[in-house]
Please model this.
Amino acid sequence: MVHRIRFVEIFTAILLLGMLTPAAAADEDRDRTQVGHNINIGPNEQVSEATCFGCSIRIRGHVEGDVTTFGGRIVVEDQGEIGGDATSFGGEIRLGQQAKVGGDVSAFGAHVRRSPEASVGGSVTDMSGPGWLLLIFVLPLVMLGAVLALIVWLVWRLVHRRAVPIAA
Model:
């Protein structure tokens, strides 16, 4: 029993270290990744990439790569720049006057609001409506639940296997 508890402690420590290491490396590369806290990129700031889970990103400076939000919006204010793609799952994308996006702009489950003066180097995809939110967020959860139910059923069946009489 002691060995099993020790194994769980070591496994948990390795898992936490694995989760923290990419976050520390992201800061060194000028990436911005947040969970639940908005990201603000000021007018004189330059960032490699920005990713936000459950929060929004406001850009007044320059992002060299991609900007992605899950459950938040992207706002590129006047003279803000994104060198790559801007993608939002479940949140709108707003491009102000003189905003520049070098790649594609894609909003799933929300709208893309774009000033006529804003420039986009790639395509603009606006998949608004609640159907897309269900497809993006709910369907994967249903699939995960089905896989977990299958695993529980298989384990239950293995544990509760009945003895089969041998024919004489």
DSSP finds two helices and 16 strands in the chain. The longest strand covers residues 32-35. Residues 1-30 form one domain. Helices lie at 2-28, 130-159.
